[in-house]
Structures are given as C-alpha cells and as structure tokens.
Design brief:
Layout (H helix, E strand, L loop, with lengths): L1 H19 L4 H22 L4 H17 L9 H4 L9 H6 L5 H4 L4 H27 L7 H18 L4 H28 L7
Helix pairs in contact: 2-3, 3-9, 7-9
Length: 199
C-alpha cells in the first residue's frame, strides 16, 4: 500500500514537472498574435496576392491558436474560452489523454479535432432540430435531409466566399495548432532534450 502511494505521488510529481516545463497560455497567445501578420503575408505571396484566401487562413490561424489548439484535451485557457459550449469538448477530453500524440501531435492532432468538432456539430444540430420539430408538432427530423442541408451550406459557402474556403480554413486551423505544438516542442527540448512525443 505504501509502495503504491509512493508510486502514485512520484507519477504526480513527474506529471507536474512535465506541465511546468511547457510554455504558459499567455506565451502561446502572444506567439499566435505575433505570427498572424507573417502568416497573412506568406499566404498572400504563395497564392499570388489572393487577399480573400490569405484573410481566411489568417483568421482560422488565430482561431486555431486561441481556441482550437491541442490543450482542449484538458481544463486549459483554450477550453475555458468556449464558455457555455465547453460541454462540446467533454467527450474529447475523456477519450484522449492529455498531451498524447493524438491531441498534440503535428500529424493527427488538428485533423482529429476538426473531424470530432464537425461530428459534434452535426449531432448537436440534428438533436436541436428534433427537439424543435417535436415541440412544434412538425415531422420528425430525417438524417438524410439534415445531410442535404450540410451539402447546401457547403455549396453556398463555396459559391459566395470561394471554392477553396474549407481547405483554407483547415490550413489555418492546422497552422494555428502547429504553432502551439512547435512552441511545446521547443520548451520540451530546451528542458529535457526530447521532442518526439509531439510527432
């Protein structure tokens, strides 16, 4: 029993040291704002001066850095910014261990968050429509009808904003989250000489 308690305390101390060696939320926010202008300039140059795409990527980058980053897997500054909508991230936190390569990893972290968030939005929207129609005596919501609505929204966005809007949003979100991860990699490497856990 004593040995078990000792191991638990030792693991807690190691975990605390791991957290403490990472940059703070304010540092991540500062880096996000600092990199916003260079992100716009780089995308503007790469897209042959397309202001629309550069703006979308930059807005998504800032959103990704401030509210859609890797630390949504724990009670963090990013998580609390979702305010009354924090409940949307409960299953995500339950499923992924904090700082796992599936939440903080460069390759899959943002991809999983985008897929998860779109799935949660779809489910939440479908439930709201079901409740609304039940309350006001309408027909039961049809999943195929709801899917068609998502398709129409996608077509509207591509027609009014641009064909590459969704790709631009994803790139911006990925870059915003990647800036967070790269900062963690740098902090981890400086303190421990290791960085592989974030790949």
């Amino acid at each position: 029993m004593l040995a078990a308690n000792f191991l638990t305390n030792e693991q807690t101390q190691i975990q605390n040291l791991k957290f403490n060696r990472m940059p703070s939320g304010k540092t991540h926010d500062a880096i996000t704002f600092l990199l916003a202008a260079p992100t716009f300039a780089a995308v503007w140059k790469l897209t042959e001066q397309n202001v629309s795409i550069a703006s979308i990527v930059t807005i998504a980058f800032v959103f990704g850095g401030l509210m859609f980053g890797p630390d949504l897997d724990t009670c963090s500054t990013q998580y609390t910014r979702w305010s009354i909508f924090r409940f949307l991230w409960y299953p995500y936190q339950a499923f992924f261990a904090h700082r796992s390569r599936w939440s903080h990893g460069l390759l899959f972290g943002t991809l999983f968050r985008v897929v998860y968030f779109m799935g949660v939005l779809t489910l939440f929207g479908f439930l709201l429509i079901c409740i609304y129609r039940t309350a006001f005596g309408g027909n039961a919501a049809n999943l195929m009808e709801f899917t068609k609505t998502w398709t129409l929204i996608g077509e509207f966005v591509r027609a009014r904003i641009g064909e590459h809007t969704f790709l631009s949003v994803f790139i911006g979100l990925w870059l915003g989250a990647a800036s967070h991860t790269f900062t963690d990699i740098a902090g981890s490497f400086v303190k421990t000489g290791r960085s592989g856990e974030f790949i």
